[in-house]
Amino acid sequence: SILILGACGQIGTELTYALRSKHGNENVIASDIREGSEELMASGPFEILDATDYDALEEVIAYYEIHEVYLMAAMLSATAEKFPMRAWNLNMNSLFNVLTLGKEKKIEKIFWPSSIAVFGTNTPKSDTPQSTIMEPGTVYGISKQSGERWCDYYHHKFGVDVRSIRYPGLISWKTMPGGGTTDYAVEIYHKALSEKKYTCFLKADTALPMMFMDDAIRATLQLMDADGDKIQIRSSYNLSAMSFTPAEMTESIKQYISDFKISYDPDFRQEIAASWPSSIDDSRARSDWGWKARFDLKRTTETMLENLGGEKI
Ligand code: VAH
Questions:
Q1: What residue range is the signal peptide (predicted)?
Q2: What is the DSSP letter of 311?
Q3: 113 CB less than 6 Å from ligand 1?
Q4: DSSP state of 195
């Protein structure tokens, strides 16, 4: 069976649904530190599980005969700046638990998400290469950079089959994001529909790499299904779909909500966003395991407004 840690999060929720439709509800165990939505709880087996508790994790692995783990539990960039040690503990100890289970051959395959947050202010900003300067300036970015090193180490030292993607900012409608710097790109659609206005916490010209959740989920399953010999990178793969600024996103929304108004009130998250790349070179993901994005900003806006607004655009 498959176990998802952090199944109630922005990615975890959709990963649970995708894996359940692919492998059957009963073969995918969702788990999180607290219960999720009614829909998620009704869709298959669920366990309350703290991903930093090795003994509890080992017990669930044995009970459900888990062979594959998706570790989606983490504290994201904005919240991690407020609680650095709690973020480090959650992000790192959950990873050590899962890598150890891999080393002990108690599980066969692991997915662990990294992020464009591993890059810092002196990283080449546009078309950021797969391998380049990485001096992250946030707690979250430091934890993701360190996590990547450990994944690579456990693979080469102990043969652990761990696979990873550096997700850009993710846009989705099924679950709200939690404590990220890119969350404006989700909130803006909700506010455009409910109030026709939004106050953005980033500057109008802050370009960031972004991806629609359906692309991110498809990439994750594609990476996990790929032949292990094709996975040349065991730290984490750059992945990209689109890049845009809040101003460009506003123009996209105004194609459908013509009187939508945006205002800007940058907060501490502006400095985090400014330290990240504006676009990513994902040529290695494309060449190693055939990645290809499908959603651009126009299609993302159409899909978000249709699903949140409840009527055909
Ligand atoms: C965050 N959504 O904002 C996450 C992601 C690239 C951004 O890591 O922290």
A1: none
A2: S
A3: no
A4: T
